[in-house]
Specification:
alpha/beta, Rossmann fold, 9 helices, 58% helix, globular, binds shikimate-3-phosphate
Length: 195
């Protein structure tokens, strides 16, 4: 009985689990909480979690800020595109993307067609509150007027986040647990055709 369960039923259930649970791709501006939510969902759903920035940092042995400084933004965007292409092929994962990943149209297509995309939307004041004290970890905000820079970037990117998302969640007043519950609810109530 036990061997039947172990050798046939378990792999079958695991396969069904993968097939019936498309990957969850988290998108949104810097400070939207993609990494934190991804780590939370990793615990709750027991699915592998990846973060495009962390994968690039681990591969290169340098922080995103150092990579921007030494190699430049264009190099980083190419690396990011390569990472998004590879990671979105994985089934049934949770992926947090860098805030600028949606600038690339191939990235948007891969995200849209290979999983369930959730846009973590937040008001500019909320985003600012979360990132204003994070030092120099965000190279794009190393500016004389970081709040103004952020505002301009968000205005330009908002339509791209919206067109890429299958689900949009207003995160301003939600706790991490409430956010996790919203994601799970949206997965159960939306059907996304993936490649
Ligand atoms: C960026 C966001 C960052 C990181 C890089 C560029 C962006 O990731 O990829 O600094 O263009 O918005 P987070 O959104 O995780 O901060």
């Amino acid at each position: 009985m036990l061997s039947w369960l172990t050798f046939i039923l378990k792999p079958l259930l695991a396969m069904l689990n993968v097939l019936s649970h498309p990957s969850i791709f988290l998108i949104g501006f810097m400070g939207a909480g993609k990494t934190e939510l991804g780590q939370h969902l990793n615990q709750v759903l027991n699915r592998p979690f990846y973060d495009t920035d962390q994968v690039i940092e681990a591969e290169m042995g340098l922080s995103v800020a150092s990579l921007f400084n030494t190699r430049g933004e264009n190099w980083f965007r190419d690396q990011e595109a390569h990472t998004v292409e590879l990671l979105t092929r994985l089934k049934s994962i949770i992926l947090a993307t860098g805030g600028g990943a949606i600038l690339n149209s191939n990235n948007r297509d891969y995200l849209k067609t290979r999983g369930h995309v959730i846009y973590l939307k937040a008001r500019i004041e909320t985003l600012w509150d979360r990132i204003k004290d994070t030092g120099n970890t965000r190279p794009l905000l190393q500016d004389e007027h970081p709040f103004e820079k952020m505002k301009a970037l968000l205005a330009m990117r908002a339509p791209l986040y919206e067109e890429t998302a299958h689900t949009i969640i207003d995160t301003d007043s939600l706790t991490l647990e409430e956010l996790g519950a919203c994601v799970i609810h949206s997965l159960n109530s939306t059907t996304v055709e993936t490649d």
